[in-house]
Design brief:
The chain is α/β, with parallel strands linked by helices. The chain has 2 domains: about 210 residues, 3-Layer(aba) Sandwich (Rossmann fold), CATH 3.40.50.720; about 80 residues, UDP-galactose 4-epimerase, domain 1 (Alpha-Beta Complex). The chain is built from 11 helices and 13 strands. The strands form 4 sheets. Strands 3-2-1-4-5-6-11 form a 7-stranded parallel sheet, sandwiched between helices. Helix 1 crosses helix 8, helix 5 packs parallel to helix 6 and helix 7 runs parallel beside helix 9. It is globular, with a radius of gyration of 19 Å.
C-alpha cells in the first residue's frame, strides 16, 4: 500500500461534499494538501477542521482557468479530481458539461503528464449507466446514458484510458452512486432529495415525492466514499473503473418515511406526491463487488446512522446561527 504521509496532493473540488471529506482523510494520513475550488458549490467552512489540524492550502479558481490549474498541479505528486459541474446544472446549461467537465478535465490530465503526477483518482458517476438494463449494475454494464452530465463523465473516462495508454498516467475512476452526508448543499438551487425532504420536514411540511415513491437510490455515506478514494490511491490498482456503492436499494418513499421518523415527526407528517421528474432514472442499484475485490472497499455506514448524522449536522448549524 502506498504511504501518503508527507506527500504533496492536489484535490480539485476539495471544498465540496466529497472533496472536503477526502481532505479530512488526507490530513489524517499526514499529507500536505492543496485544495482547488471555485467555491460555487463548495464552502470554505467545509475545510475548517482540516485547516486547523493539517497542512491545507486553498486556491480559489475555476477548472476552466488553465494557468491557475497548471500552477496548482506543479509540485504535487498525486491528484484527487472531484471538481465538476453537477447533473442538473449541466441539463440547464449543457455547454458547461463541455467547458468544465470535459475540457477542464482534459487540461488537468495534460498538466498531470507535464508535471509528472504519479496517480490520479477521479470521480466518475453511475450516470454513465443511464437506466439500468439489469440490476444490480456492475462495471461491465454498457453506457446507456442520455443526459449531458453523464456524457461528460463517459468522455472523461475515455480520456483517462487514453492518457494511461499514451503517457502512462496511472488512474482509478470511481463511479459514485448516490452520495449523501454532512456538507451536502441545502440551498434551493442545488439541494438533492435528502436536503429537500429535510428542509420541508424542518418547516413542518410533508416531504414531496416525485412519482409514486417507487423510484430507488443506492445511498452511500460520504465518509465511506472518501475512504474509497484513499484506498484507491494507496492501492496498486490502475487503469480501472469501480463502483462506489452500498449495494442496497432504497425507495424514495422508504427514504422519506425514515427521515420523518429520525426527525421525530412520525405520525405528524406523511409524504405527498407530485408528477415524476423525467430527468431521473427509475432505479439505481450498484454492485460493490469489484471495489471490494480490487481495493478492499466496503460501505460501512448503515443508512439510518448516516441520515442521523446529517440531521445532527443541520441542527448544529442551526444552534450556531448558520443558515439552513
Amino acid at each position: 500500500m502506498r504511504d501518503l504521509s508527507g506527500t504533496n496532493i492536489l484535490v480539485t473540488g476539495g471544498a465540496g461534499l466529497v472533496g472536503s471529506h477526502i481532505v479530512d482523510e488526507l490530513v489524517r494520513e499526514g499529507a500536505k494538501i492543496t485544495v482547488y475550488d471555485n467555491l460555487i458549490r463548495g464552502r470554505e467552512e467545509h475545510l475548517d477542521w482540516s485547516r486547523s489540524n493539517g497542512n491545507v492550502t486553498l486556491i480559489q479558481a475555476d477548472l476552466r482557468d488553465r494557468e491557475s490549474l497548471r500552477a496548482a498541479v506543479e509540485g504535487c505528486e498525486y491528484v484527487f479530481h472531484q471538481a465538476a459541474s453537477w447533473l442538473r446544472q449541466c441539463q440547464r446549461e449543457p455547454r458547461l458539461s463541455l467547458d468544465v467537465n470535459i475540457t477542464g478535465t482534459f487540461d488537468l490530465l495534460e498538466a498531470c503528464v507535464d508535471f509528472g503526477i504519479k496517480k490520479i483518482v477521479a470521480a466518475s458517476s453511475s450516470s454513465v449507466y443511464g437506466e439500468g438494463l439489469y440490476l444490480p449494475t456492475d462495471e461491465d454494464h454498457p453506457f446507456n446514458n442520455d443526459i449531458f452530465y453523464g456524457a461528460s463523465k463517459i468522455t472523461n473516462e475515455q480520456h483517462y484510458r487514453c492518457f494511461y495508454k499514451q503517457f502512462g498516467l496511472n488512474y482509478v475512476g470511481l463511479r459514485y452512486l448516490n452520495v449523501y452526508g454532512p456538507r451536502q448543499p441545502y440551498e434551493a438551487a442545488y439541494m438533492d432529495v435528502i436536503m429537500n425532504f429535510l428542509n420541508r420536514i424542518d418547516a413542518g411540511e410533508p416531504p414531496q415525492l416525485r412519482g409514486d415513491g417507487s423510484a430507488t437510490v443506492d445511498l452511500v455515506f460520504v465518509a465511506d466514499v472518501a475512504k474509497a478514494n484513499i484506498l484507491a490511491m494507496k492501492s496498486d490498482a490502475t487503469d480501472i473503473f469501480l463502483n462506489v456503492a452500498s449495494g442496497r436499494e432504497t425507495t424514495i418513499k422508504e427514504l422519506a418515511l425514515l427521515l420523518v421518523k429520525l426527525a421525530g415527526m412520525e405520525g405528524r407528517l406523511e409524504p405527498v406526491f407530485s408528477p415524476m421528474d423525467d430527468g431521473l432514472v427509475a432505479r439505481r442499484w450498484g454492485s460493490p463487488r469489484k471495489a471490494r475485490e480490487v481495493i478492499g472497499f466496503e460501505a460501512a455506514t448503515p443508512l439510518a446512522d448516516g441520515l442521523m448524522r446529517i440531521i445532527e449536522w443541520r441542527r448544529t448549524r442551526g444552534r450556531a446561527g448558520l443558515p439552513l
